[in-house]
Design brief:
- By secondary structure, this protein is of the alpha+beta class.
- The chain folds into two domains: about 30-150, Phosphorylase Kinase, domain 1; about 155-370, Transferase(Phosphotransferase) domain 1 (Transferase(Phosphotransferase), domain 1).
- The chain is about 30% helix and about 15% strand.
- It contains eleven helices and 14 strands.
- Helix 9 packs antiparallel against helix 10 (about 345-355).
- The radius of gyration is 21 Å and the shape is globular.
- Bound molecules: adenosine-5'-triphosphate and magnesium ion (MG).
- Adenosine-5'-triphosphate (ATP) binds near residues 4, 87, 131, 147 and 210.
Length: about 400
């Protein structure tokens, strides 16, 4: 479980340069957080009953209710634990809905701010690839968030956790990996391109990609999200926050945050999906601790691509798909933010890869086959630069 921490090594404290947040959260309909969402993005959403915008407003719960739902936060209801507290499974009495309840550490000042940002962001943002906030509890000093339950847990559990080894969970095959990558990219596209001003997620990592039935991915944890630059500004300045290994180098060094910082983190996640390696893994040999640093030289040599791919796949992947997915990842993790692609281009590329159903039965196993012929080369860096407008 990789807890969040400030990349610059400073303690996690309240940021002075946050966007202006409403001081109260009780009446969210009157929130003064200005964030519009372009209409077309709502078209494919499953609508539930309405608060006027087509979504159920987050409900408030009492601490007593949530304690009852989790059998007093009993250990056998525990789903996991992150940097901000524990997550429990429970069933709401009113609706019989299964939920995940995150109980924030009571002593954390930062936790309270992130609690507010999370409630606000998830009350305003709705997309099939973002986790749904059902409600929250702000009783006294208790802070709890109630989310829809995601039955397949996090992408991290599947890629790196013990679950991928247990016999009841199938290992993630190539097709599922590409579908997860494409879905996560769509969630990010919504934040960058459909929300206005754009929302910079800042905490994209495998443990924050939760999986619904059918491995449908949803982004979670918006406590670190920030509203992007408006007007002529190219970036927002912040205290550096995020998770080591996922943080874009320029953001870690200067604190200047742009949507391209999220693209870098996305590239790291995509590399984890392809290689099965962690962003940071100190148990590996020297020179292999940092995934991006290890992968970069390999991007240049097509003959080495088969060494990059997750051995758990046992050679069952399309060489052309691997080549293209690696090209997308390589573009996303470029040092120069301006050279990284826009998320819309990433969505296009990954949606294409996800639509190419790879059938291991009808294709040679890459561990035994010598074929490394790549297919159509992916979009070049020059094309991406042109489209990105940087
Ligand atoms: N809505 C949910 N449905 C099912 N399981 C969940 C849900 N939310 C969280 N979990 C589980 O709880 C674990 C802990 O989540 P949490 O977001 O608190 O921490 P994290 O993402 O692992 O780390 P960090 O604190 O750095 O974000 C997750 O890895 C996941 O397994
Ligand atoms: Mg999380």
């Amino acid at each position: 479980m990789g807890g969040c921490f400030p990349c610059a090594g400073e303690p996690k404290t309240v940021e002075k340069d946050q966007p202006h947040l409403p001081t109260g959260i009780r009446d969210k309909s009157k929130s003064n957080l200005s964030l519009d969402v372009k209409k077309e993005s709502l078209a494919d959403e499953k609508e539930t009953s309405s608060n006027g915008s087509g979504h159920i407003a987050a409900q408030t719960f009492t601490f007593r209710e949530l304690a009852a739902v989790t059998k007093n936060f009993r250990a056998d209801c525990l789903l996991g634990e992150g940097g901000f507290g524990r997550v429990y499974k429970g069933k709401l009495e009113s609706s019989n809905q299964i939920v995940a309840i995150k109980q924030l550490d009571r002593n954390s000042l930062q936790g309270n701010r992130e609690f507010l940002v999370e409630v606000l962001m998830l009350s305003l943002l709705h997309h099939p690839n973002l986790v749904n906030l059902i409600g929250y509890c702000a009783d006294g000093d208790q802070r709890l968030l109630v989310y829809e339950y995601m039955p397949l847990g996090s992408l991290e559990d599947h890629l790196h956790g013990i679950s991928h080894l247990s016999p009841d969970k199938k290992r993630l095959d190539w097709n599922t990996r590409m579908k997860i990558a494409a879905g996560a990219a769509k969630g990010l596209e919504y934040l960058h391109d459909k929300a206005s001003p754009p929302v910079i997620y800042r905490d994209l990592k495998c443990s924050n990609i939760l999986l619904d039935e059918g491995y449908h991915p949803k982004l979670s944890d918006f406590g670190l999200a920030k509203l992007g630059p408006v007007g002529d500004n190219t970036h927002v300045s912040t205290r550096v926050m995020g998770t080591y290994g996922y943080c874009a180098p320029e953001y870690a060094m200067t604190g200047q945050l742009t949507i391209k910082s999220d693209i870098y983190s996305f590239g790291v996640v995509l590399l984890e999906i392809i290689t099965g390696r962690r962003a940071i893994d100190n148990s590996r040999a020297a020179g292999e601790h940092n995934l991006v640093a290890w992968a970069r030289p390999l991007f240049k040599d097509r003959r080495k691509f088969s060494q990059v791919v997750d051995p758990v796949l046992q050679g069952q992947y399309p060489p052309r798909g691997l080549y293209q997915a690696l090209a997308v990842a390589a573009m996303c993790v470029q040092e120069q933010p301006a050279l990284r692609p826009l998320i819309a281009d990433v969505v296009t590329a990954l949606s294409y890869l996800a639509s190419q159903n790879f059938n291991p039965e009808s294709q040679p196993n890459q561990n035994t086959s010598r074929s490394t012929t790549p297919g159509t080369p992916p979009r070049t860096r020059r094309d991406t630069e042109k489209r990105s407008g940087y």
